[in-house]
Amino acid sequence: EAWQDLRSIGAAARWLLRQAAAQRWNLPAERLGTHAGWVIAPDGRRLDYGELAAAAAQLQLPDAGVALKSASDYRLIGQPAGDVDARAMLSGRQAFAFDQTWGDGYVAVIARCPYAEGELEHLDDSKARAVAGVEKIIPISVREAAGLIGEVPL
């Protein structure tokens, strides 16, 4: 099962990172903790995973494998996560990498129906046309859009 594979991979990575930090600090790995991307020594010293990655990659896992976290040690699993960006995404206020501008290229934006398998019945594009830089608005159906992959309908 993928869940067990991911748990094993996480445990192995954590074990290797703790071993790398233990070698750097000359401490027993069992005395080191991990939290939020850091290996932490009992005295408060910290090394981030990025600082340890190269050294950890050179180490070998023990033949017997490594211990998995017990459910009582989970910090995130089973906790409500919420989606801190959901409201901004749904309202169009969320900034994405796509929102960057590069030179004189065109930017295409797809506005989809908010309902699954919904189709456009009416489009009032007056506000969109009033935005500086808008060149063209092309209403298309889902079927038409599927046929346009790789084409630019300008």
TrEMBL record:
InterPro entries xref list: Ald_Oxase/Xan_DH_a/b_sf, AldOxase/xan_DH_Mopterin-bd_sf, N-heterocyclic_Hydroxylase
Gene Ontology MF terms: oxidoreductase activity
Protein name: Isoquinoline 1-oxidoreductase beta subunit
Organism listed in the record: mine drainage metagenome
